[in-house]
Amino acid sequence: MQSSDRVFTLPRGRLATWLAEPGRDTPHEIRVSLVGTLFGTLPIFFGGVFNTVAVAWVLALRHPTFLFRLWLVAEIAICAIRFGVLVVSRRRAAIGKPTPTDLYLLLAPLWGATVGYGAFVSAISGDWVAATLAFLSAAAMVGGICFRNFAAPRLVAVMIFLSLGPCCLGALVSGERVLLLTLLQIPFYLFAMSVAARRLNAMLIATMKAERENSHRARHDMLTGLLNRAGLFHAAALDGGARITPGMTLLYLDLDGFKPVNDAHGHEAGDTLLMQFANRLRGLGSEQALVARMGGDEFVIIDTFRDSTAELASTVVRAMERPFEIMPGISTRVGVSVGVAPVTREHRSVDALLRAADASMYEAKRGRRRDVTSQS
């Protein structure tokens, strides 16, 4: 899983996007997390680098020819560039800046190609020790490629093909008949590891979707789809509380007369009333508004409103007191008490705002009761 404090940019280029494609039905948030897993950690990176560079180094010393030296130089160059891109990507991701994801993804197949090149030149060298060591190195890399990059099955397949494909070519031109067995082994190995990567990818996506759904359920009201109390506090705390700024207003709404409707027409009618009330409340705010059901018949909305406090409360009351059709052919009206708490530099925490709005709401209720008593 991707570290929660690092967000890596999705690839933009056609080829890099194709390599990292996890599946059409994968949500955006999961795609971002999957791309993050491709960057791995520095210890894992150095483990792979040590293997490939060490083998190339040893065989370049054993065969100080142009082909083996070219392999060593290519390995060192590609690994150094990948390391630099990895470090830059991790630093930029940690501070929320775009990362060079396309470059990092395209360097991975190139790295696989250098491993395959080394296996090829070792096979045609006539040195069984060199061929064995290079083939073992390529096979070892395939396991790491599969289980480190299964978030992108296409990338896995391409890297395995570029790493092991040259082994087949080397076997064909080496003149050693026993090596022809690789023409059967390697295609089967490529198929098996690619299938394994796809299955692991599907399992990972299914797990991430389940976690996402569980997180959504934990922070949203199941009836209305609004945020619940925990979801409101979580959303307000995102980005260091930047979503709640001075100039915004918190409205605390409590339905008056909801219980009689519930008692007279049943819980299904009451649920219908709550869902319709939630939809009207959504319509009062902007797309950036935080709208929550705090429990029972109590709701909260935090947004930037143009009206003054008194005008805003009156607008909300008028909007919510329009008839609700709770059953076919049956409509009802309910009242609503509104508590208002403006967001200021001194009062930005949800706790403080809720306390202030709750006090304001009950003051409005008491005022309404006094008005009713005086009129009677």
UniProtKB/TrEMBL annotation:
A Pfam family reported for this protein in Swiss-Prot or TrEMBL: GGDEF
Keywords: Membrane, Transmembrane, Transmembrane helix
Domain GGDEF: 246-376
Keyword Membrane: yes
Alphabetical list of SUPFAM superfamilies matching this protein: Nucleotide cyclase
Record flagged with keyword Transmembrane: yes
PROSITE patterns: GGDEF
Transmembrane segments: 34-60, 66-89, 101-122, 128-147, 154-172, 178-197
PANTHER family assigned: DIGUANYLATE CYCLASE DGCT-RELATED, GGDEF DOMAIN-CONTAINING PROTEIN
The protein, known as: GGDEF domain-containing protein
